[in-house]
Amino acid sequence: SCCIVPAGHSLTCLPPIALIPSPSPHLLEQLLHSYCCLLIILCHSRGSPPLFLQDTGLYYDRYLREVIEVLETDPHFREKLQTANTEDIKNGRLSKELDLVSHHVRTRLDELKRQEVSRLRMLLKAKLDTLQMDHASLLKQFEHLDHHNQNFEAKDLELLISTATKDLENYDAERHEEFKRYEMLKEHERREYLKGLDQEKREKEEKRLQELKEKHSQHPKVNAPGSVNQLREVWEETDGLDPQEFNPKTFFKLHDTNEDGVLDEQELEALFTKELEKVYDPKNEEDDMMEMEEERLRMREHVMKNVDTNQDRLVSLEEFLKSTEKREFNNPKEWETLETKPAYTEEELQRFEVELRDKEEELKRRAETLHQEQELLKERGKALEAQKKEYQQAVLEMSQRQKDQQAAEVQPPAGPNGELQFKPDTNKEEDKGKHLREMICAVMSSLVFFEYILIMNLFSSRTRWAESPSCT
Predict the structure, then answer these.
(1) Share of the chain above pLDDT 70, in %
(2) Boundaries of each EF-hand domain copy (predicted)?
(3) pLDDT by residue (tens digit) across 329-348?
(4) Are the C-beta atoms of residues 381 and 218 closer than 8 Å to each other?
(5) Which of 92, 93, 163, 262 could crosslink 158 through cysteines, CB 3.0-4.6 Å?
(6) Is residue 112 within 8 Å of residue 152, measured between CB atoms?
(7) d(Cα 255, Cα 238) in Å, to the nearest integer?
């Protein structure tokens, strides 16, 4: 879930994606890679050292990193990248500089793009056969490159950056939505579990769950994130310094761990650990670690909203110092934790349960269809096996008949008194036997091929069902 880089570089880690409750695979890939893309470019634009990200195994990680590495080899583009600001990167102005890079760099970028398109086509071959769609239609779902042009143009760099920017802007909203679905699923399972108990056990279990809920809510006061009390607590307990000597500028430099002059989202979230430990303990049954990560996200959003004035998702020293001069810094409102207000309404929960029931019914229908196909295949297999045995028996009989004929040809036929008898003409019978054997072999070959086709059809049906979006 993290991309680790050496100490002193501009990026320490990515958000703990693995803790997000049940995100869809396609959405997770897009968000994580887009986040990597924008942060890489932003780090380079501030003149930071190259990043050596671990391979995340996602679908355009290699392409992204190779494009960055190739562009870095061009002195002109490297200079423009280091002097560009965030807006130049986001609005695509930086991508126009691609026309000025050297010929060998453009040639290498063209090669990288052709390799990426070829790789995507190989990955989509199975879907092509299943969905009966052409390659161009399938490639449209990948927004990080222009699939109409095989060469790497300015548009490709612009798409790579714009995809990162768009996904990054929607990242937090998607995480909130996934958390809401997680909470609704948890409540749905709780209600279904209680329905399956008798009256006495249900009352006992409801009482136990209520006690756990009350125990979770009995925690020390949580300071508002970004307030003077919260920062002084970190200053004292984490940094080991005298709270009376709290200095905002010194605090900023202490927690700018990569020394790039800004606090990124991960450095900010690290400041909230002490507050979160007041509410959540992984050893306690009543504390949900998924809720802790949602609380961490809410705290970070709260600070960014009040401090990040230019909305670049980074807190500069100037922005941080200005925030300490606000009235809310010294007299913040009391922070409301997640248990004070539900993440969903009863109406949303009801719609969610209807959606779950619909998906369950769809899965049952598909399972029944698959079972019927399996039974049909078994019956056809039995019929094929019976026919196979019949033809095998016929072949054995023909072989035995041929052996008998050959044995009879060794001794000339004789009558009762030893007189010679005329030998009947068996050429026609031999031709008929040979022709019959050839027909039997051809029929058996056809049956074996038909059996293979039936097995492959069933395997294809199972594969399509297993890969369907609702098969969870």
Answers:
(1) 63
(2) 243-278
(3) 988 888 999 988 888 999 99
(4) no
(5) 92
(6) yes
(7) 11
- Determine contact, residues 414/423, Cβ cutoff 8 Å: no
User: Using CA atoms, how far apart are residues 402 and 409, in angstroms rounded to an integer?
Assistant: 11
CATH number of the structural domain 197-344: 1.10.238.10
Please write the tens of the pLDDT for every residue from 373-402.
999 999 999 999 988 888 888 888 888 888
CB 92 within 8 A of CB 162: yes
Q: Which residue has the tokens 């022709």?
A: 435
Domain boundaries, the chain: 60-167, 197-344
Backbone phi and psi for residue 137, each to the nearest 5 degrees, phi listed first: -65, -40
Percent with pLDDT over 90 in the chain: 34
pLDDT score at 96 = 72
Q: Which long-range contacts (CB under 8 A, 24 or more apart) does 188-195 make?
A: 188/349, 188/352, 188/353, 188/356
User: How far apart are alpha carbons 151 and 191 in whole angstroms?
Assistant: 56
Q: Considering the chain, what is the average pLDDT of its residues? A: 75
Closest CA to 119 of 161, 53, 60: 60
Please compute the mean of the pLDDT values over residues 454-470 and round it to a whole number.
57
Measured CA distances, 284 to 281, 324, 342, 450 (Å): 6, 36, 21, 60
The region, left, alpha or beta by phi > 0 then psi within -120 to 50, assigned to residue 412 is beta
